[in-house]
Amino acid sequence: MQPKEGKTAIVMGAGGFIGSHLVRRLKDEGYWVRGVDLKWPEFDKTAADDFIIGDLRDQKVVADVIFENVDEVYQLAADMGGAGYIFTGENDANVMHNSATINLNVAHEALKKNVGKIFYSSSACMYPEHNQLDPDNPKCSEDSAYPANPDSEYGWEKLFSERLYKAFERNYGMQVRIARFHNIFGVMGTWRGGKEKAPAALCRKVVETPEGGTIEVWGDGKQTRSFLFIEECVEGVRNLMKSDFSEPVNIGSEEMISINDFAQMIIDISGKNITIKNIPGPEGVRGRNSDNALIQEKVGWSPSWPLRKGIELTYKWISEQAAKS
Q1: Which of 70, 236, 278, 291 has the smallest C-beta neighbourhood within 10 Å, fewest atoms?
Q2: Which one of the listed residues 154, 165, 172, 315 is annotated catalytic?
Q3: Distance of alpha carbon 107 from the chain centroid
Q4: Domain residues for 170?
Q5: What is the pTM of this model?
Q6: Is 154 a catalytic residue?
Q7: Is residue 192 assigned to a domain?
């Protein structure tokens, strides 16, 4: 099934959290959208016009789903998860092999099919670990990426794939846009099972903990992060795709917060009397915060939502999900 007229887009990873929201946004803008993933969206029906269940590690699947002269391809498909999945080291081989294979297949096929423009979702995990040792003063500006020293194999694969798409751009004139996402969260995201990220995991813990109870937080809680609500992420992606800027840029929030303060914010939202117990566990770098100077200058985008606003919506949604299960 292919469209006869109008703008067209293919979203790889359309069954995932960011991908399913992006499909909906593209539909709202009038695109004909094909979604591709190993699975359907978990929490809502897809908004895509056409949805193909397929394994993008398979070259034939990629060849079948990318059609000639599609206007835009969004490559978000990856083997990934939260700290409990990425930083234990137990999933490194799969993370690197699966994600790199997908990107090699997609870049090759996009060139063959004369794709108009391709978006690749990289990650702040590609930034050097040595620039993120001070939780109060992390350096994550785009020009700090080299010399490279990511803190995980997930980050190394993201960096490799950035270079892959840039090489196709240099050698073949492919139109490429790359965003380094910083901790995207929100409604209709994974909130249990081991692959959930910190905002959803902490919301779930608070939801499931009775009044007077205790939640466990990995590390000493002094490590810092910033978190960006999903609607703002999608807005940033669309602004980047409409721009003429082709170098990698951060898409994230500059509202940095310690993990213990973040957990306390969620507890305050819940209205419960809950205490925090810090325990050993995978935590990644000591500090990370988006630096939005470049995307503000080149694309004219910056987030506007305060962290608490997005967390209130996310906590409410996870509370509703937990009540159903």
Answers
A1: 278
A2: 154
A3: 19
A4: 8-185+227-255
A5: 0.94
A6: yes
A7: no
